[in-house]
Write a structure and sequence with these properties.
- The complex is a heterotrimer of chains A (about 250), B (about 280) and C (about 240).
- Chain A is an alpha/beta fold and about 250 residues long.
- Chain A has one domain: P-loop containing nucleotide triphosphate hydrolases (Rossmann fold).
- Chain A is built from ten helices and ten strands.
- In chain A, the strands form two sheets. Chain A has a six-stranded mixed sheet with strand order 6-7-8-3-9-10, with helices on both faces.
- In chain A, helix 4 packs across helix 5 and helix 4 runs parallel beside helix 6.
- The radius of gyration of chain A is 18 Å and the shape is globular.
- Chain B has two domains: about 130 residues, D-Maltodextrin-Binding Protein, domain 2; about 110 residues, D-Maltodextrin-Binding Protein, domain 2 (3-Layer(aba) Sandwich).
- Helices cover about 40% and strands about 20% of the residues of chain B.
- Chain B is globular.
- Helices cover about 80% and strands about 0% of the residues of chain C.
- With about 240 residues, chain C is mostly helical.
- The chains are: A alpha/beta (about 250), B alpha/beta (about 280), C mainly alpha (about 240).
- Chains B and C meet through helix 1, strand 2 and helix 8 of B and helix 2, helix 5 and helix 9 of C.
- Chain C: It is found in: Cell membrane.
- Chain C: Keywords: Membrane, Transmembrane, Transmembrane helix.
- Chain C: It is a multi-pass membrane protein.
Chain lengths: ~250, ~280, ~240
């Protein structure tokens, strides 16, 4: 899909035109974060390539969400560091990324005003609003109070808001957990479109089938550690780690 | 943004507020009895229509009124505590003090009359009897003209009321009306100026127990605040008001004011040409 | 027993007086009511203009001495009106540093005093409201890399209905206080007489039914303002904007 077909993602065209250095590849080394004395993220090394969609998979409590927040720069690690194309984590780096939270936090305003707020705050073209809303299927709900939307609609609005910042990297934390099938379909379609357009995607999920549908590579996390990082086909065909095999087989992994 | 609009509105409102006390007006720092008895409501319209000067009255105890005037927060002082008034003039805060009018103090008490003083004409004897019986007595206790008068009466007796303070001698630290309300509420004797008493509406079963003693005489005076001590005062307006009060027209108006058919204040300004 | 009956008669008399005062549109009453509203609403607006951004800033900022600032802010909520009145009097008096402004015994002086009285209330309560809201929004805002000004602006706007209740608390305190306006306003007829000082005056005249009648009108007024705000909030609740 060409840039011209998606004018509301002008950030990419802008990035190409500006001398801004590419954000990727990303290197994380020795990332550690303790909560209550327990290392919930434990000496994680991780590399993300230039393109594609990476799924972070693992049982509940494996540290997936926290890893995402560390990579996005929402909190500093206690040990280790993340570099983006050689540059250390910074506000500028975070600003070129977006994160869709598992539970969307929407402003106490209308659907459209939620987008207006981000477009204005990030000095983006306010005219992008209509196209963004159409893209997530909320074109006819611009004036509805955002917090009265259904769960799926809320998450779609959160995704539109993330896209409104024109991110180079898009993190998604369990974006479709317990949503209606229509919303799941729409969100997955947009994820694929973004990947094709060159946005780097990192999606946390515990939905094995979703990882298989969307991801180019899979990171399997268990007890705060990366147990396995492999191309999706390889991972699903022959998971190397025992915990990953148990997880894929549907057994309870503690 | 909405908040800057609120700020703007507030600023305008502040500016409008500042504009209010302009025009030709004077501020009288007054004792409460003249205000609470309704005298000003009766007097001021006549003066205002004649002179075109608006008169604003702050009614507080005599002590506070003098203090406010010393801070230059008033153009005219109208109180009833002659020694303090003379000190005010001597200290240079007032141009001159003129006797304006008088009424008298009375001691009011409950019908039961626990100290048995009803009908007494000797105020000091009555106070001694109240102390003897340890009957409750409500004092202003606020350094007002009435309070000063009361203390001067006690000083002529054998009794030091401070020794009964908190027991039978109760200092309310409030204005005349509040002290009457409190005194009546606890069945205490109260010394009050007659004007306040006559116009007071919450008398319940209280009656005048003591009246008629020369010692209970209550003289009011009027003093324009000195423009030398307080350059901000409206000296002309203040002098015009003071002059009018002691003029025949003003004195007649004071004499004509009645509540329930009773005259409250008796004008006694020096006749023209006789004052120094 | 007789006195108890009389007191009850006073209350009945007060109710009757209150109704007839309102129905007759008594000019003096209207003037007093309008001034009360003007003074207290203006004070509330100014207190909000100062207190809301301050409360929002303290809610989102982390700085050394923040704990102390919170304690001071909360303690100032209990400022005694009469002390505020005295302090303002000493400043605005002709003998005071701001005497040249000639503001003593004007509605402006009353607005200043009430603003000082309620700005801490607005700041402290809004800090609490906005800190709760910020807890909810903080991660999302950090992800969006908003500036502090953008965060404060968004919190104030999104908290607007909760903050209306905060403003109401301030207004309630302002319109009900007598200590400060009595000292700096002087209770001057047709100039600075408001509901509370009029009530104090009627009480000191022993005109208890009239004092109570004015009190009833004041309470009705407060009730009206509260109902209006409640109505606005109710519509906000329907939109999940609260």
């Amino acid at each position: 899909m060409s840039d011209a077909a998606l004018p509301f993602l002008g950030g990419r065209a802008g990035a190409a035109a500006s001398p801004r250095a590419p954000l990727l590849p990303m290197r994380a080394r020795g990332l550690t974060l303790r909560r209550g004395g327990v290392a919930v993220v434990d000496r994680i090394d991780l590399d993300l390539g230039l393109r594609g969609c990476t799924a972070i998979l693992g049982p509940n409590g494996a540290g997936k969400s926290l890893l995402l927040r560390l990579l996005h720069g929402l909190e500093p690690p206690e040990a280790g560091a993340v570099t983006w194309n050689g540059a250390p984590a910074s506000r500028e780096v975070t600003a070129r990324q977006a994160l869709v939270f598992q539970t969307p936090v929407l402003l106490r305003r209308s659907v459209g005003a939620n987008l207006d707020f981000v477009l204005r705050a990030r000095r983006r073209d306010r005219g992008l609003r209509a196209a963004l809303l159409d893209r997530v299927g909320l074109g006819d709900k611009a004036d509805r109070p955002a917090r009265l939307l259904s769960g799926g609609e809320k998450q779609r609005l959160a995704l539109a808001r993330a896209l409104a910042t024109g991110p180079d990297v898009l993190f998604l934390d369990e974006p479709t957990a317990s949503l209606d099938p229509g919303s799941v379909l729409m969100i997955e379609r947009i994820v694929r479109e973004e990947a094709e357009r060159g946005t780097r995607l990192v999606i946390v999920t515990h939905d094995v089938a979703q990882a298989r549908r969307l991801a180019d590579d899979v990171v399997f996390l268990h007890r705060g550690r990366v147990i396995e990082h492999a191309p999706t086909d390889t991972f699903f065909a022959a998971p190397a780690a025992e915990a990953a095999r148990d997880f894929l087989a549907g057994r309870i992994v503690l | 943004m909405a908040f800057s609009r609120i700020a703007l509105v507030s600023t305008l409102a502040l500016a409008a507020g500042a504009a209010v006390a302009q025009s030709d007006s004077i501020l009288v720092q007054s004792t409460t009895s003249t205000a609470n008895s309704g005298l000003y409501d009766y007097l001021l319209p006549a003066f205002e229509s004649e002179s075109g000067i608006t008169v604003n009255v702050v009614a507080v105890g005599t002590g506070q009124a003098i203090e406010n005037a010393r801070n230059c927060d008033g153009d005219v002082l109208l109180v009833h505590a002659k020694p303090a008034e003379e000190a005010f003039v001597a200290d240079g805060y007032g141009t001159a003090r003129t006797d304006l009018m008088y009424n008298d103090f009375v001691i009011v008490g409950p019908q039961g009359d626990p100290a048995g003083i009803a009908g007494t004409e000797d105020a000091q004897a009555a106070l001694s009897a109240i102390a003897e019986a340890e009957a409750p007595f409500a004092s202003r206790g606020d350094d007002s003209g009435t309070h000063k008068k009361e203390l001067s009466l006690w000083s002529g007796t054998e009794v030091d009321p401070a020794s009964g303070s908190g027991a039978w001698y109760r200092e309310t630290g409030s204005g005349m009306g509040a002290t009457l309300n409190a005194g009546i509420g606890m069945g205490a004797y109260v010394m009050t100026d007659r004007a306040t008493w006559i116009s007071f509406e919450n008398k319940q079963d209280y009656e005048i127990a003591v009246e008629g003693d020369e010692d209970l005489f209550n003289q009011y005076g009027v003093i324009p605040v000195s423009p030398e001590a307080c350059p901000s005062v409206n000296a002309e307006g203040a002098q015009a008001f003071a002059d009018w009060l002691v003029s025949e027209a003003g004195q007649d108006a004071i004499a004509a004011y009645e509540v329930d058919g009773q005259q409250l204040f008796f004008p006694n300004a020096p006749r023209e040409g006789t004052d120094g | 027993m007789r006195e108890a009956t009389e007191s009850l008669q006073d209350i009945a008399e007060a109710l009757r007086l209150a109704v007839s005062l309102v129905l007759s549109g008594d000019a003096d009453l209207v003037e007093i009511v309008v001034l009360s509203l003007r003074v207290s609403l203006t004070a509330t607006a100014v207190a909000c203009a100062i207190g809301l951004p301050l409360g929002a800033l303290v809610a989102v900022a982390r700085f050394p001495g923040r704990g102390t600032a919170l304690v001071v802010m909360n303690a100032l909520m209990g400022l005694p009106p009469v002390v505020v009145g005295l302090i303002v009097y000493l400043h605005l008096s002709r003998a005071g540093p701001l005497g040249f402004l000639g503001l003593l015994y004007t509605p402006t002086a009353m607005i200043v005093a009430q603003t000082i009285l309620i700005a801490p209330i607005v700041a402290a309560l809004s800090r609490q409201v906005l800190e709760d809201l910020h807890d909810e929004y903080a991660a999302q805002f950090r992800s969006l890399c908003l500036t502090r000004a953008q965060v404060v602006g968004a919190l104030l706007w999104d908290g607007r209905y909760a903050l209306m209740t905060v403003a109401l608390a301030g207004f309630g305190r302002a319109v009900a206080e007598v200590g400060a306006v009595m000292i700096v306003g002087g209770n001057i007829d047709h100039l600075t007489r408001v509901m509370t000082t009029a009530i104090a005056l009627e009480t000191s005249k022993g005109a208890l039914p009239m004092a109570l009648a004015l009190g009833i009108v004041l309470m009705a007024l407060a009730l009206g303002v509260n109902a209006a705000v409640h109505g606005l909030r109710a519509s906000a609740v329907r939109h999940a904007y609260v």
